[in-house]
Specification:
alpha+beta, Nuclear Transport Factor 2, Chain: A, six-stranded antiparallel sheet, 7 helices, 45% helix, 19% strand, rod-shaped
């Protein structure tokens, strides 16, 4: 009987011990495993800087410089070509072809010119004695610049031909003049007759504005 009682006490103690120990294992916090490595994680910025710091070989430097120079030359050529294209498509009044077009329109509307040459009248540039119209497109001209190199005056010469004969025309204008205004616009037939459509040379040579107005009234100008 005594032995049985001792056995029961031992079993009860063991059960109690298991009950107390089990919750402790259940409440134990999980352990985080850390991996330690001698190499640090690379920085992307440092890696990019190291890549950019690669030294080029002499051949690569020459090739890169040549490529940059080539693209710069292409860009400069494009700008120059664009300037000339715009100037040809949208010429100013101080260009020979533009002034020729304006002056020829005025000449073709002059009654005296129509009477001498007849109608229709054709205006063209330099006559090389050939039959190709392309050779007659060049307008003889003289450009006069000021001390700063700015174009201030333009003189042109062109030819006229009608059923009754030929003639030559001369025109000069200042950059400050309005459209349709000329220093002179004169036509001379092959018989030597001179037709003055506009002639403001005396007026422009006057020293004062009063003298210019007086000469305008004397010569029949406005």
């Amino acid at each position: 009987m005594f032995a049985v009682a001792n056995l029961r006490r031992a079993v009860a103690r063991a059960t109690k011990t298991r009950t107390l120990v089990a919750p402790a294992k259940a409440n134990r916090a999980p352990l985080n495993r850390r991996h330690f490595c001698d190499k640090a994680k690379p920085n992307p910025a440092q890696a990019e800087a190291q890549t950019d710091a690669i030294v080029l070989t002499p051949y690569e430097k020459v090739a890169a410089t040549t490529q940059v120079g080539m693209w710069a030359g292409i860009a400069g050529l494009s700008v120059v070509c664009g300037y000339f294209i715009v100037r040809e498509l949208f010429p100013s009044r101080m260009s020979p072809n533009s002034l020729f077009s304006e002056a020829s329109d005025i000449v073709l509307q002059n009654d005296m010119v129509l009477q001498r040459l007849g109608a229709p009248i054709r205006c063209y540039g330099r006559d090389h004695g050939g039959h190709k119209e392309g050779r007659r497109n060049f307008i003889e001209h003289v450009e006069l610049n000021d001390k700063e190199g700015n174009k201030t005056r333009l003189r042109i010469k062109f030819n006229l031909q009608g059923p009754n004969g030929k003639a030559q025309a001369w025109a000069e204008t200042y950059a400050s003049m309005n459209k349709g205004e000329y220093v002179y616009l004169i036509v001379q037939t092959y018989t030597g007759e001179i037709i003055k459509i506009q002639d403001n040379r005396q007026i422009l040579q006057a020293d004062s504005e009063e003298e210019r107005d007086a000469l305008k009234r004397l010569l029949g100008g406005n």
